[in-house]
Amino acid sequence: MEADSTEFITADCCIVGGGPAGLMLGYLLARAGLRVVVTEKHADFLRDFRGDTIHPSTLEIMHHLGLLEALLQLPHQRAEKLQAEVAGQEVTMADFSRLPVQCRFIAFMPQWDFLNFLADKSSQFPCFTLLKSTVFDDFICENGVIKGITAVREKRVIRIRSQLVIGADGRHSAVREKAGLTSREFGSSKDVIWFRLSKQQNDPKWGMGHKGPRQNFIIIDRGDYWQCGFTIQKGQFDALQAAGLAALKQHVAAVAPFDERRMAEISAWDQLKLLSIRIDRLDKWMKPGVLCIGDAAHAMSPIGGVGVNLAIQDAVATANYLTTPLLKGDVQLSDLEKVQKRRQFPTVATQFLQIKMSSNKGKSTRKSNMPTIIRRFPVLRFVFGRLIGLGFRTEKPKSVV
């Protein structure tokens, strides 16, 4: 492109990806007075079937930031427990009622509402800039060190010079790919087909959990509709498509708690969204001038809905460790390494637990034993409540002096 089609921006930190991790980090850094630019490749946040769970750990962060009351004024549903139906009986798999936090529940809120909320609060700081419809292109490098990025917005090139680039652009991160960061993939045996079913007057008052005779039908209360998930074997979707929509609806009806006639609401394939589950983790989250966090550093399974909340904990830890070096204009590789060191254990532990839970689901004996064990030892529901609600390590935002 010609030189006059290029826009130049200078910032302390450039964050690629306007998801939960990117916007939370942007808010925290701007709150400390740093010049922050967040680039988001989409024109808005309206993507269906994103992770919409806001766990007690995230709600506690919002409390510390003085944002909780305003956040909970937005439409949402609450789940104080996670339930599963096994052999026709309801089993409480996780109970949040004993957590040492302000909110002892999971809030179900459309992710676009949560992201719009964070973007609005961030925009109140004059040093915060959100660039939508802006696609990451490449790094600006000097002497082998990353000094910013180039991006494309409406056919214009934007050169953003910054002390640090944060990759928060999800499990298909262009930042981590361009940076050449290596990863380990741990695989998954399952995928999930997501779709909606309307609520009817006689429907039970379900919250969130696994329902149906074979416990592989996921249901989430979205207020005026049910968000439903049908678990399938990895790579099975193409064969299901080849067999036809009618056959798929029969498979769904066999495990769903709804009457088979409700499947008539599904009349086209575009009403179904395939979530391809994968679990991976970067070997190193950084190199000089760039750091990856959230799904860009560690893609999570949707088990427990913990991915969004783990990403937000990453963002808080990143702000806690890097705000001072950024303010001083002296961010060293060792500062970036501290973030990974802090967040490595909760990442590894969570993924280990997810892998174990996923591998057990295909084994009917273990699968049927877990609810029995929880019935026998009720304290386990509170243990799982803590692991799901708070995770293995929580982060608290540092006060701004």
Automatic annotation (TrEMBL):
**UniProt-listed Pfam families:** FAD_binding_3
Give the keywords, sorted: Oxidoreductase
Annotated FAD-binding domain residues: 11-335
Endpoints of the signal sequence? none
According to the lineage, what is the superkingdom? Bacteria
| InterPro entries, sorted | FAD-bd, FAD/NAD-bd_sf, PheA/TfdB_FAD_monoxygenase
Keyword flag Acetylation? no
Do the record's keywords include Oxidoreductase?
A: yes
Matches recorded under NCBIfam families: PRK06185.1-3, PRK06185.1-4
Its protein name is FAD-dependent oxidoreductase
